[in-house]
Inverse folding.
């Protein structure tokens, strides 16, 4: 027997499980943050929120990919190929390949 019952058993959409787990994890993170020891320092330092913000800026922002240029993406999609068997019989192009449609 599974430890968790799937949402369809209760007549719910499968996304209900995703929403439940998201709320549950956010509540857990909130509790962890709220129970962290707080410094009783008197003044001039950064607040905890500012420290987290600074840490994110230093560690995560450099890891983000560069912004994409829409015109470059469109040009790359025009020449993107797909599997050999999925060429459109009428046009001879790869426009109808599901991956190419998704990327557009």
């Amino acid at each position: 027997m599974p430890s968790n019952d799937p949402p369809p058993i209760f007549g719910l959409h499968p996304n209900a499980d995703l929403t439940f787990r998201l709320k549950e994890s956010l509540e857990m993170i909130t509790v962890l943050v709220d129970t962290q020891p707080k410094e009783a320092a008197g003044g001039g330092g950064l607040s905890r929120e500012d420290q987290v913000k600074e840490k994110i800026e230093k560690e995560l922002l450099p890891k983000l990919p560069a912004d994409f240029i829409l015109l470059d993406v469109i040009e790359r999609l025009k020449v993107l190929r797909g599997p050999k068997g999925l060429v459109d019989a009428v046009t001879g192009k790869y426009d109808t390949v599901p991956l190419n449609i998704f990327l557009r």
Remarks:
- The chain has a mean pLDDT of 78.
- Residues 15-34 form the longest helix (20 residues).
- The radius of gyration is 24 Å.
